[in-house]
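user: can you give me the structure for this one chain? tokens are fine.
assistant: on it. calling the predictor now.
[tool input]
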Amino acid sequence: MKKLAFYLLALMVFVACEDKAPEINLEISSIDFAEDGGSTTINFTSTDAWTASVDSDGWCSVNPESGNAGSVNIIVSADANSEVDDRTATVTLQSGPVKKTISISQSKKSVVALDGEKYTVDGVGGSIKVEVNHNVDYDITFDCDWITLGETRALETDNIAFVVAANESREARTGHITIAAKNGTMSQQIIVDQNACDFKIYYTSNDEHIVIPNRMDVFGANIVSNTYENGEGVITFDGKVTSIGYGAFNPCWNLTSITIPNSVTSIGSWAFRFYESLTSVAIPDSVTSIGTLAFSECESLTSVTIGNSVTWIGRNAFKGCDGLTSVTIPDSVTAIGEGAFCDCI
């Protein structure tokens, strides 16, 4: 009788042990990954064999995927997110009928996309409009003080206006605008090229007095001022200087040098005739034609450099420039008029 009671007690204990469910002890319930992905180690304990699985379409993984009872370390990894939306997944730990889950979330890819990367602005200044598509907040910085932020409408697609000041120098210049995500994940740069000052003509005179053009209507723009300070004259126009037309300065006896803006495409007939004090001239690449008698009788002219766009040098263009010792004629020239260098002894 005692033996029977003992066996019954042992059977009850065995059955009780058989009915006890497995246990998984897990302290963490969620993992947040940044957009560039990474890996995290998770620790849990299980009283029985276990498995791990992920429902992520492949961008999230777990290793190892199964194991025996005990204290366990698994590694949960996420690939970099190339999508423009946040994404989620679930890691499931299972031992028998028992399940524990870990929620996985990953930040979206930071996007600050521009519709252009390089802009060119005339020397008179102006504005540029840049379209910015973004899904994160961003900052704008400048590496120069002649570009500023204009009035902008703040939308998910921003149309940003930048104001470019007038270029008061004779040289072209380049500035950079940096648009960077505030979370520090990425940045893009805009290059702004501004042409040299094409609304001014610089000159010098042998008596340091202003040189007054013979005609006011042959420059493609109107003269707004003519000054002579610090050893140099400056003629300022209300727009781009596109030509130095017929008889523009003829005759201006005291002119010794002149800077022709890169916006000028033609030098007209008689434009600089009888400039007896003019010593040298550089004709920019923008000029395509030099008119009849344009530089004739410039007796002090010693050298001429003709830009790479000139195709035609007019009749008697440099006639009587008897001090001329050097002329550079580019391959672009297809015709030289009769007597162009007559009496250049």
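assistant: here you go. Residues 198-345 form a domain with the Leucine-rich repeat, LRR (right-handed beta-alpha superhelix) fold (CATH 3.80.10). The chain is about 5% helix and 45% strand.
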